[in-house]
Design goal:
CATH class: Mainly Alpha
Shape: globular
CATH topology: ABC transporter involved in vitamin B12 uptake, BtuC
Number of strands: 2
Helix content: over 70%
Radius of gyration: 19 Å
Distance between the termini: 55 Å
CATH architecture: Orthogonal Bundle
Order of helices and strands: HHHHEEHHHHHHH
Number of domains: 1
Length: 295
């Protein structure tokens, strides 16, 4: 029972990071109806840039944070103006293919500027081990959990209580109607991309603080968030949270119980098996909206 509690807790802690990563995809989909297949590449690019500023250039953490905000804002504006705005009114598949091409471009940039093996971020908090009964949690894992919870709470307050959040919700419901009411839809798209990329960067840094800065693992983390979104429902913030926790727990249980039996690797497959089972019975995800179109 102690072993089960330990791996279950590990799954919950990891699942919160997955949920935060999935939130970034939900933000883009809710505002623009585009499923962002470049998410994994954005996670890798933003995390490596944080490493470059903190380790490569030796900038203080608070300076690197504001510099990262400026870079993310410029990236969000560039993506909206040069990639997505020209595709407005075009078939949805064109926008999807654009995000796939964008992901490949960003992957090439990461490989070009940061080739070779992975890097290591500096230790920002004193490492320690916390015990809660039979469960042992590292201080870094607990910090990641707290940061993810704060990010979720801040975003929900922003989305529900601010005028800009109200404009984002209106844009998500109907772009044309929102524009007719005076909402600057293009600006809302830029804000949505900014928030999504920022959330992705935070998630990437949190995971890299535990496992190092490796493009392969960061890209895989971003792509796993796609599975979380599909499981929870592509338009549901609650679905991103619940889906992330489910994927984290299933992956942890698979690693603890099934990997030793099959020689390893099953934990990477188990979440997708659960995803397929859920989609058979709920094609729109656990909390997705079933759309009914009149013909």
């Amino acid at each position: 029972m102690d072993f089960f509690l330990q791996i279950f807790t590990n799954g919950i802690l990891t699942g919160f990071v997955y949920a935060l990563m999935a939130l970034a995809i939900v933000i883009i989909y809710k505002s623009s109806s585009i499923f962002n297949f470049a998410h994994g590449s954005l996670v890798g690019l933003c995390t490596f840039f944080v490493w470059q500023m903190v380790v490569g250039w030796g900038l203080p953490l608070y300076v690197a944070f504001f510099f990262e905000l400026a870079v993310i804002a410029a990236l969000a504006y560039t993506l909206q103006q040069l990639v997505l705005k020209p595709l407005t009114g075009q078939p949805l598949m064109a926008a999807i293919m654009a995000t796939i091409a964008l992901g490949e471009l960003l992957s090439g940039i990461v490989v070009l500027f940061w080739p070779g093996p992975g890097r290591v971020l500096p230790v920002w908090i004193k490492l320690s081990i916390l015990k809660f009964g039979p469960v042992v949690i590292s201080s870094e894992s607990l910090t990641n959990f707290i940061v993810c919870a704060i990010c979720f709470a801040v975003f929900l307050l922003f989305f529900q209580k601010t005028r800009l959040g109200l404009a984002m919700r209106g844009t998500a419901e109907d772009h044309t109607l929102a524009q007719s009411e005076g909402v600057k839809v293009d600006l809302i798209f830029v804000v949505s991309w900014f928030v999504a990329i920022l959330v992705a960067a935070i998630g990437g840094v949190l995971m890299s603080s535990l496992y190092g800065v490796s493009y392969e693992s960061l890209h895989a983390l971003g792509m796993k968030a796609l599975a979380v979104v599909i499981l929870g429902g592509m338009e549901s913030i609650l679905g991103a949270l619940i889906g992330g926790l489910i994927i984290g727990v299933v992956e942890s249980l698979g690693s603890g119980y099934l990997d030793p039996l099959v020689g390893g690797g099953f934990s990477e497959v188990a979440p997708y098996i659960v995803l397929l089972i859920v989609l058979i019975f709920r094609p729109y995800g656990l909390f997705g909206y079933k759309r009914i179109e009149r013909v």
